[in-house]
Amino acid sequence: MSTIETWKALLEGRNADEVVTKALVRDVELPYGAGTMALVTLDNGHDHTKPNTFGPHGLLALDAALDAITARTDVAAVGVVGKPFIFAVGADLKGAAEVSSREEAVAIGALGHHVFRRLGELGVPSFAFVNGAAMGGGLEIALHCAYRTVSSGVPAIALPECFLGLVPGWGGTQLLPRLIGPEKALKLIIENPLSQNRMIKGPDAYALGIADAMFEPADFLEESLRWAAQVLRGEVTLERPDHTADDWAPVIDQARTLVDLKLRGASPAPYRALDLVALARTASRDEGFAAEDEALADLLMSDELRAGLYAFDLVQRRAKRPAGAPDKALARPVTKVGVVGAGLMASQLALLFARRLEVPVVLTDLDQARLDKGVGYVHGEVDRLQAKGRVSADQANRLKGLVTGSLTKDAFADADFVIEAVFEDLAVKQKVFAEVEEVVSETCVLATNTSSLSVTAMAANLRHPERVVGFHFFNPVAVLPLLEIVRGAATDDATLATAFAVGKALKKSCVLVKDAPAFVVNRLLTRFMGEVTAAADEGTPLEVADHALDSLGLPMTPFALLQLVGPAVALHVAETMHAAFPDRFGVSENLAKLVAVGKPGLYGPDFQIDPEVRALFEGGTSPSTTSPSTTDDVRLRALRALAQEIRLMLDEGVVAAPQDIDLCMLLGAGWPFHTGGITPYLDRTGISEEVTGSRFLEPGVASVPE
């Protein structure tokens, strides 16, 4: 049975939930007498907010369109273009999550290869006109064509599969390295997905050699057709280097080192992708595509992929409809923002508010020098944005004009939203809000960027405690997308709705959190960091303790995170949590010693444990274990603590559901998608049931159905 017949049989009798991307064919007479082009437009019938994707029905529709085209004798070329603003973004991920057997998974890879490769084997030249976002299978469609043009306005081109726990499975690992060389290809296949799923833009794709020509958006298709005609007439010729003659081994080895550093073997997908790229140098097209089918099948049936799809769904859907958020109609307009403080965090906030809300932002601080430094930081960052082409000269001048400083809080009199970013001390923050309340209107929202203190206590002595809300950003503010919005005991719906509206305008993913010590991310990180540090305090070798969680593939080790946060901040949060929950959160004496001697962390500038720090930790008398499995013991100790803490947080109503815990860890702590956050990992390793008596998620939600 052929691939097409196999899929027709598989689909028979199924209720198709797939949003089918149709292949709409029309004839275009090319200029200069170059002949007739059969132009295929990919269109799922929705606007750009629902991009073109490919499930089995969509692939069969494209195959049928190609059948009709190849039956003709009057076609000089075939072109492929997307609907407005969208080329195609690859496989239907919802359908991928429903694949129930390895045989079906192999068939999905084979179907994509069968259909897409026809574009390069039509007998007439094929052209991809990349007019909009092209990701995953969308980019692979273009790679199968003989020629490619790209619009300079395309905002996103990527092969993001490794980010989710897959590999580019419809030709990407075989065609891209041959086209642009393995080093450039691995940036798209490996490096960018593992760097917070970074995308490239149209001009980048042209510079890399993915596209043969680039045109402006206004007349992109017209100019692309003109260029295609010139190619057909021989007036434009392209010379592409033979990258198979190069030595690929050093590039592959370098990429493997990068993957080891980032994931430490935790996720199989990037390693499979590396093997496939290495294969592309010598494999025939049939061999390479068959290897992609096998890799795709293995990964589609893995827990890591299901956890990745679960994480993707959280970020794409749940983050856009925050659980428990009040009616957005209650939100008040924000026409001016005040920022108390002019330090680094406050300055980052000022820049973010000015860029996203495009309203005046005024900073205050205790003296002119601090104020000048804070405003100067914002202006310097705006200059950098302009130098990178992110903002125009006019936009840069406007942004600089929006951000000003004042030594008095009287400047907040007409502000609708004031956020404090001062020292993490309850008394200091209470004093700040009392001073602000004297000058602002009764409806002005007072927001705190506290990372662990009680929002309720902060508002307790105010005349209007109902307008105080937690607005906890994560550092760096411009990069990490999470915003924990904390409802105090008195916070009213109008304040909360305004906070969510502002968070959305800032392009942050907002999660509603109950006012509880350290909220979500910092509470969980402090708990697991405390367990790792306690193991080191008890005598476990520092390197063993620090690498105990490598199997999760976290963005950094616990002690590297400590170095980033700073021992003083970590100690302060640990003390806060110990005061709230003394039975579960300890305070490390060695961490206190680290702060006392002014060390920035455990590691020295050579990325080795500082000998003086090692001496501080020596003398522990009760190691976690003396067996060779010390790493496993520390890992299980930390994970069991996380399972316990998550169950308690859910019981306390800190968030609405486990999904919100996972969303926070993905977006606020940078945990990789292949873990699904934290609860899927705890479920599939059996730790959830061991510690709490039950799973956090139903079987099959973020794992292979049982």
Automatic annotation (TrEMBL):
UniProt keywords, alphabetically: Fatty acid metabolism, Lipid degradation, Lipid metabolism, Lyase, Multifunctional enzyme, NAD, Oxidoreductase
GO biological process entries: fatty acid beta-oxidation
Pathway entry: Lipid metabolism; fatty acid beta-oxidation; Lipid metabolism; butanoate metabolism
Record-linked SUPFAM superfamilies: 6-phosphogluconate dehydrogenase C-terminal domain-like, ClpP/crotonase, NAD(P)-binding Rossmann-fold domains
Catalytic activity line of the entry: a (3S)-3-hydroxyacyl-CoA + NAD(+) = a 3-oxoacyl-CoA + NADH + H(+)
Pfam family, one: 3HCDH
Stretches assigned to the 3-hydroxyacyl-CoA dehydrogenase NAD binding domain: 336-515
Domain 3-hydroxyacyl-CoA dehydrogenase C-terminal as annotated: residue spans: 519-601
An example molecular function term from Gene Ontology annotations: NAD+ binding
Keyword set includes Chaperone: no
InterPro entries linked: 3-OHacyl-CoA_DH_NAD-bd, 3HC_DH_C, 6-PGluconate_DH-like_C_sf, ClpP/crotonase-like_dom_sf, Enoyl-CoA_hydra/iso, FA_oxidation_alpha_subunit, NAD(P)-bd_dom_sf
Family stated for the protein in its record: In the central section; belongs to the 3-hydroxyacyl-CoA dehydrogenase family. Belongs to the 3-hydroxyacyl-CoA dehydrogenase family.
Protein name per its UniProtKB record: 3-hydroxyacyl-CoA dehydrogenase
